[in-house]
Structure formats: C-alpha cells, structure tokens
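Lay summary. Proteins are chains of building blocks that fold into shapes, and those shapes determine what they do. In this project we predict the shape from the chain. Here is one chain we studied, written as its sequence of building blocks.
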Amino acid sequence: MSTAARPALAIQSAPTARWAPWAIVAADVLAIEIAFLLGLGLRRLVAAWLPNGVGPDQYLGVAAGILLLPIINLQLGLYPGYMLGPVERLRRRMLATLAVFGGLVAWDNLVARGVFSRGVLLATLLFVLVLPPLAEAAVRAILIRRGRWGIPVVMLGAGDTGRALARTLLREPQLGLKPIAFLDNRATVWNTVAEGIPVVGPLRLASDFERRAGAAIVSLADLVHGDGDRGDIGGLLQELNFPRLLVVPDLAGVASLWVSARDLGGSLGFEIKKNLLLRLNHALKLLMDQAIAAPLFLLSLPIIVLAALWIKLSSRGPAFYRQMREGMNGRRIPVWKLRTMYRDGDRLLEEWLERHPDDREQWRRYFKLRHDPRVLPVIGPLLRRTSLDELPQLWNVLRGDMSLVGPRPLPDYHLQQFPSEFRTLRTRVLPGLTGLWQVSARSDGDVSVQEALDTYYIRNWSPWLDLYILARTVTAVLLARGAY
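And here is the predicted shape, written in a compact code that computers can read:
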C-alpha cells in the first residue's frame, strides 16, 4: 500500500452504546405495562355501566399476555431499529400490536373461553397504540443527544450521491447511521473533507474499517469511472465483510418507501409499488378521512363559532373566507377558512412591501411574512399560529374535495412559481388539510422545499405515511413550530 493511499486525516470514532437496544426494550415494556394499568383504570371507571365485573384472574392474564409484544418487536428489528425510518417503524409497530391483541382475542375465544377481560384488553390496546411509540421516541432522542445512538458507517463513493446521503444521515440521526469516513478511488479527493467527514483514500482501504464500522454504504452512482465504466462492482460487494452492507442504486427521483428486493432467477430486481394506482388504497384513504374528519368536525364546531364571533367583533365583513383553488385532476374546488385578514389585505400588503423592500424577497420565496400587515390583531395571529383557521376545511374533507393528508391546496399565485411538471404531479392526489411540508418545515420552507416534500409524499404515499403525518401534525400544532 502506498503512503499516499494511507489515511492522513484523523477519523473520529462514533461512540455506540451497546446497551441502547436494551434501553428501547425497557422503555417499551414499561410503556406497555403503564398502558395496561391505564386500560384497567378505564375499565373500572366505566364499571357502573357494564353488567360484568372484572377480577384479578381476568386482567392479570392480559398483563402477562401483552408482554408478547416486545418479543414480536424484537423479531421485526425494532430493537434498536437502526436503518428504519419513522414511517416504517410506525408500520411495524402497529402491525405487531394488532397481531398480538388479535391473537389474544382469538386465544380467549377458542381456547381459554372467556378468561381475559375483553374490556381491559380493548382499553389497553388504545393506550398501547400511543404510549410505546412515544416512549421509544423519547428514549431515542435522549440517546441521540448523548451521542450514544447509531452505528459507525463507512461511505464508499464521495461523489454527489454519497455527499448528499451523508448530509441526510447527519441531518436525520434517528436513522442510526453515523458516517465516519469516505472512501473513493479518485486520488484528487484523498485527504480532503466532505460534509465534515474525511475522505481517507481508495476503496481498497475498506478492509481496514471492518472492525471499526458496523456498516458500509456503497453509492453506485459515485463509482462510475471517467469513461463510464463501473468496474467490478459485483466483486467489490463480495469482498466487503461488514455486518451490514447497503447499496444505493443510481435511481434518483423514484419512490424510496415500499421498495422490495426480488430474486428473479438469480438476478436482483427491485419492486417499486405504485400505491396511487391501487384502488384499494384510495378506498382505504377515503375511509380514514371520513372516520377521522366526522368526529373532529363535530368537536370543532364550538371553536369555529367562538372564533367567528371574535372575527366579526374585530373587523367588518364575513367571518369565513372562501377561495377557489386547484384540486385533484385540476378541478377547481372551494377551500374554506376562518378569516384572519382584513378584507382589503391585498392593498395593505402592497403598501407594506413598498415601504419595506427587504420583505419583498421573503414574500417571493415563502409567500409569508413574519409581520404581515393584513392579519387581524390578536385573533388573526392566534388562529394562524395554531392552524385553527383551517378547521372549516374539515367540511371540505367530508365533501370529498380534500383529504386529511396531502399537498396543501395553494393559491394560484403560489402555484405559478412551480414547474409545470410538478403542478401536474400535485393533481394526481387530493389536496390535504395537512401535509409533509406542514409537519417538516411549515412557514420556514421556501418553494423548493415545498416541491421536494410534496414530491416525496406523492411518490411514496401510503396509509402508514398518512398516519405518521397526522401524528406529527398534532405536535406541530401544539408547539406552533414554524407558523406565523
């Protein structure tokens, strides 16, 4: 090995806590049993309205039976869950939970003959769907802050794809992959730093990292030689002896969720599911929308009425604002909101931008202003920061014009800033009351961020992604993060 090919830059080891998986297991078991106690308490609370009582024999069996759930989670790779995104973790957790509780019900009906309290079991299920995922997220966040989450990773290929992937891994530490070094056959990049990570030498140094790194990531797009030759990629992959080996194909722009590897008679193929083309998924999405939007709309009516009265006292004009916007298949739909601006808001905005030219660039990029002269005092900022001004759009969801989750229906002047291809892509799905952009960036994301996040959602759509976004929406609204 030549001197030039040896690592000349200091490589920071990525500390990993071997007990991290056990921390997740402990949090899971504790959360599951707390969910059982809450379920038992709820069952006792409604005991006066139910004919049958609950004895220790009926609920202690539930407490023991639900401990099957951590065992199933272990088999599904959720401990510690490295390399699993939040949507995939949610999917596996929900499927495991429903399978365990369904199995307990079947056992009770077919074998035990009524030993378990079904009321306790059902109440526990409701809490188990919520508490263990929250406990897992909390423990993972603590481990990440302490630098004890994840495994060291060597990146093979320091080109555009590898660098972009490294940025993503550093920005999303919950994936549990911590880049410690780049390897690349181009001598011009040796002993340099990319994304804060040293490029230490050629690919043949990979064997030096096999005891220091828990995984290697091969970026195929970065291994193309100047003449377009990829070299012996198959031989390289066979020689790598890392516990985990990830290969990133040169397939930029296609779906990344719900992709499965298939053995095609000895050849490797990737099945990319087009969920948007499956009618069953559309029916399921519609069912979810109606089941969730109907009770939410009824619960929101008092808030809508009080907000409407406040708006009427603050400004002349209607309490509600209606604007025609682009919906699915390009159809024009009426989108309803509680009015948060003065009726002559366009004039006020133009006058403000004339007096404050620095704000014009912010308006051009985000179509929002931190100090918007059009917004009504007190009630306007309150509704906008909490997103309560959009509650009337639950009626749009019930009408079928919108979905709970999807790309937001934007005003025409906003849509005109996007490329025509992206505008066409947006019309393939129903616009949403909330979306990936709202829970990820909200007002802090410019048009390019909006395009990237909406594109990701449409290409990777699934009911699980919708459930994840709905859960994130609750947090985003409660914290009023990025809203103004």
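What the prediction tells us: The radius of gyration is 27 Å.
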